[in-house]
Amino acid sequence: MAPGFFQNTIALVYDFDGTLSPQPMQEYTVLPRMGIEPRDFWARVNQEAKETESDMMLVYMRHILESLDRQKIAVKREDFAKMAGAIRYFPGVEGWFARVNAYVRKRSGGKVKLHHYVISAGQKEILDGVSIRRHFKRIYALEYHFNHHGVATFLKLLVTDTLKTQFLFRIKQGRKRSPNRSTSTCLRPSGPSCSRTSSTWATG
User: Fold this and answer.
1) Domains of the chain: which residue ranges?
2) Residue among 157, 181, 186 at smallest CA distance from 171
3) pTM of the prediction?
4) Angle at the Cα of 82 from the Cα atoms of 138 and 14, rounded to 5 degrees
5) Nearest of 23, 32, 137, 141 to residue 89 by alpha carbon
6) Cβ–Cβ under 8 Å, residues 71 and 32
7) Residues 10, 107: contact at Cβ < 8 Å?
8) CB atoms < 10 A from the CB of 204, how many?
9) Taking Cα atoms as reference points, which of 111, 121, 106, 112 lies closest to residue 167?
10) Is the CB of residue 16 less than 8 Å from the CB of residue 189?
11) 123: buried, middle or exposed (CB in 10 Å: 19+, 13-18, 0-12)?
12) Three-state SS annotation for the chain
């Protein structure tokens, strides 16, 4: 009889906007800082992306930089992190991590490790400042380049839907594999079901 399939490392991978928090993170942080109405901002971004056939992520990040520059607001990495204090979460999110960690630890007798990750098209400099940051082993998100004055000047890393699958692969390959050591990766665990392909799981 074939040995039973056992996973001793589980990775829970979350999106952020609309999954952990009700609104896009920019609506709690940088847009209020600039006095910009979110509805107007996203309307301009969507219109330009459609008319120019541009990537919406690139458009919105550029619009933020241009708006900051027009208003002579020099935002540094630590400023983005401080803004994150205004972000609100869905009910239950802040206590979720301790609860699920305790559940897995109890059910496995301490034999299964649980790690949490974020893969988001939001901004990493903001996510690094959220109150639940300590729960995540790693965050993959858009990043700005900061010049020698420490001010954001242009986009350094873009996260698209295609690149999100690459980050899932990185998470999977980030651990040594052996015949009795496997990793399950579940994207958006709150989804209705997970379908398994090899040892990578994704919601269907």
Assistant:
1) 9-203
2) 186
3) 0.79
4) 30
5) 23
6) no
7) no
8) 8
9) 121
10) no
11) buried
12) CCCCCCCCEEEEEECCECCCECCCHHHCCHHHHHCCCHHHHHHHHHHHHHHHCCCHHHHHHHHHHHHHHHCCCCCEHHHHHHHHHHCCCCCCHHHHHHHHHHHHHHHHCCCCEEEEEEEEEEEHHHHCCCCCHHHEEEEEEEEEEECCCCEEEEEEECCCHHHHHHHHHHHHHCCCCECCECEEEEECCCCCCEEEECCEEEEC
Q: Which CATH architecture has domain 9-203?
A: 3-Layer(aba) Sandwich (3.40)
pLDDT tens for each residue of the chain, 204 residues long? 445 556 688 999 999 999 999 999 999 999 999 999 999 999 999 999 999 999 888 999 999 999 999 999 999 999 999 999 999 999 999 999 999 999 999 998 989 999 999 999 999 999 999 999 999 999 999 999 999 999 999 889 988 888 888 888 888 877 433 333 444 444 444 433 333 333 333 332
Pairing of strands 183-187, 152-157: unpaired
Residue 127 structure tokens: 């996510």
Tokens of 47: 């219109």
Amino acid at position 30, single letter? V
- d(Cα 32, Cα 34) in Å, to the nearest integer? 5
Q: Is the distance from CB of 203 to CB of 194 less than 8 angstroms?
A: yes
CA distances from 133 to 30, 45, 109, 136, 151 (A): 19, 28, 26, 6, 23
Compute the distance between CA of residue 180 and CA of residue 67 in angstroms, rounded to an integer: 53
